[in-house]
């Protein structure tokens, strides 16, 4: 999940009745159904947490052999009417309506990492639903990268140049071979740059005169002309950086990270000054 994202949608070809979610080494019972449903909407709250067994039983029971402990696993369900599930180092146990425990083996260290990470780009972590004959692949992207294969990069909140141009720029092609949208964008950015540069230059010349800076507004407008020059300069640098990097997918990933961490925040900083 990304910043400010509060929900997620998952699609699966397999039908299921139980869904257990692991978040930061904590387990949550997200879904528990008697009957199979094709459309399930649920939420995760602290009440759905599968409590570690050592928080529910005394030390005497906890140090008992595994088989003897399992015989007493109905006790936490009967003592805690709101308890839905609990977990130990070997098993996940669900509390039934009759307040019995229904336990099954749980592999805590199970990994879904792909054996050959050739699908995800830009250092993304590849995950698959099965070790053998997998059906689905998921990429967990590093900071600044997103997309099904972590092929896009962006930083910040709101629309960026990456969002506006990433589907229009043709990789491994020159500027002459790009779409009309990309060419018009390049012309528009160059025109904006020239207009902004001339406007800032003449504004600076006007308010460079001391008589024009006798009031605070004159000083403010002089500084604004300098900031405007920086903004249009950062805009054109950012535009050509995005265009060039998308036209050349094989570019070094460190260069992309520099653009993500430096150019985009600087452009936003100057815009909000």
TrEMBL record:
The chain crosses the membrane at residues 180-207, 219-242. InterPro entries: EGF. It comes from the Eukaryota. This is EGF-like domain-containing protein. The keyword Transmembrane applies. Keywords: Membrane, Transmembrane, Transmembrane helix. Residues 139-150 form the EGF-like domain.
